[in-house]
Amino acid sequence: MRKPVDERILFEDNHLLIVNKLSGEIVQGDKTGDVCLLEDVKTYIKETYNKPGNVFAGLVHRIDRPVGGAVIYAKTSKALSRMSQKVKDREFSKTYLAIVKNRPPKDADELSDFMIKNEKQNKSYIVNSNTKGAKLAQLRYRVVAHSDSYYLLEIELLTGRHHQIRAQLANMGCPIKGDLKYGYPRSNPDASICLHAYRISFEHPTLKKPITVKAPVPQGMPWDAFGIDS
Questions:
Q1: pLDDT tens digit string along 180-190?
Q2: pTM of the model
Q3: How far is CA 201 from the centre of its chain?
Q4: CATH for 5-215?
Q5: How far apart are CA 162 and CA 135, in angstroms?
Q6: Where are the chain's structural domains?
């Protein structure tokens, strides 16, 4: 049973609504026709504030279906436009946590790779820089903890490519736990992957004040082994 939106709100005002997305949810409607978080957000706004007619809510940025964590919806078209521009201009900080089995080559590093997306497979590949359509993907990571079996990485996204973290970590020899698509040998029981959108920071689109929001990590193992402060 999915927790309702009102139990997962991380931040809300007249302009923005930030929700802790569950792994398995889709952030907006797609070809699967499955229930999406966007529609749940609209229902929450409509019922909570007794809004008549159609309710506006716009997705500011995406998170992959098997990934959980903080996702932002705009409650006004002005906020959506301004937040979308911040994402485009990289005035928007996104920090992820990932659990991997293999120890990274370095405890901290910046990865720069060229990537291309295969639409048919819904998968991205690391390619040579001269490959037609290739785009630069950059991130920083550092090992922040380890358990008997796994390593916890904190990742700062510097670009926003399709499946970027999943592809770049796999290319480094550290596929994310549960991520069969990118080379991890076993799936997680709930079909999630151990990647979590942990922290987002940005300037509020109308109030012009800094906002930082953290999303509590999933409960249970292997996350519990690290004692992460949410």
A1: 999 999 999 99
A2: 0.93
A3: 13
A4: 3.30.2350.10
A5: 10
A6: 5-215
